[in-house]
Amino acid sequence: MHKDHSKHQFALFFARASELASLHSKDDVITIDDSQLFHRICNVLRLSPNELYIIFDKKQHIVFQLVSTSKKNIVTSKIISIEPNQISKPHITFLLPLLKRDAFKETLYSLTEIGASEIIPIITGKTHRSENINRSPERLERIIHAAAEQSKNFSFPVLHKSTLLKDTLSELHSGPRLFFDPDGKNILPVVTEINNTKASHITLMVGPEADLLPEEKQQLHENGFTFCKLTQTVLRAQQAAVVSLGIFRSILKQ
Fold first, then answer.
1. Within a domain: residue 77?
2. Nearest to residue 89, comparing CAs of 202, 239, 191, 220?
3. Hey, is 54 helix, strand or coil?
4. Is pTM beyond 0.85 here?
5. Residue 218 and residue 230: Cα distance in Å, rounded?
6. Residue 232, pLDDT score
7. 33 and 110: one domain?
8. Kind of pairing, strands 201-206 and 177-186?
9. Domain-located, residue 205
10. Of 13, 216, 203, the residue nearest 94 (C-alpha)
């Protein structure tokens, strides 16, 4: 990312960023005809000529210097740099039970900020089913894009369709698998061991607000999950998800 300017650079998700990157080079001055981009630059961010901003998609990000805007949704900018997105390592798959609507959205936002690689919404015996998230993937993707813009996590996570826990377990990557439970073992030795083995894929999971059923926990044991506790207290699912991913992204060597 371009780092020669100390002023904050706003980042905007733009689905055609990689397409533009393939057609242009550094120092090119280009025009983009896009009403949404125009609206955000002119009316939301109120950027002035010469200010920098970033557009990105899943693969690449481009730092632009704004040249001008017109009344016909045209944004003219100079390319300062084009760079591939940095992929966070190791790859972390997060199994997130369906929570209450607002809690699920907030957790999705936080997991994107912290750096989940992929998020799989999980249906368990005690999850909330008041909203079928498979019917509104665009709305959830917008939440992920907003979190990526704020955190500049340009390699934002892949969001899968919600699936039953038993169906998901058979499709997971190989590698360490952890379930966070108040009765689990101390997490520090587990994180240290994973760090030493330099695992390329890790799977993390928290339970729903009412916890997993005993038979579901047995399924996790049978599928190689290690049960760990995060704190001496009992956390809500939303808190546990954020704390657990934060621990791994903060401690594990890249």
1. yes
2. 202
3. strand
4. yes
5. 20
6. 87
7. no
8. parallel
9. yes
10. 203
Q: CA neighbours within 13 Å on the CB side: how many for 103?
A: 18
The candidate with the shortest Cα–Cα distance to 117, out of 245, 250, 252, is 245
Asked if residue 125 lies in contact with residue 140, where contact means CB atoms within 8 angstroms, the answer is no
CA distances in angstroms from 139 to 37, 134, 136, 144, 168, listed in the order given = 18, 10, 6, 9, 23
Coil, strand or helix: which one is 145? helix
Q: Which domain holds residue 139?
A: 91-251
Sheet with 10-13, side-by-side order of all strands: 10-13, 52-56, 60-69, 74-84, 29-33
Between CA 179 and CA 124 the distance in angstroms is 14
Q: Which two tokens stand for residue 112?
A: 């994107």
* Domain count of the fold of the chain: 2
pLDDT surpassing 80 at residue 6: no
Count of positions (residues) in the chain: 254
Question: Where does the pLDDT of residue 7 fall: very low under 50, low under 70, confident under 90, or very high at 90 and above?
Answer: low
Domain end among 30, 61, 84: 84
Q: What is the CATH number of the domain that holds 55?
A: 2.40.240.20
Instruction: CATH number of the domain at 150, please.
Output: 3.40.1280.10
Query: Helix 237-251 and helix 101-114: axis angle, to 10°?
Result: 0
Q: What is the 3-state secondary structure (H, E, C) of 166-180?
A: HHHHCCCCCCCEEEE
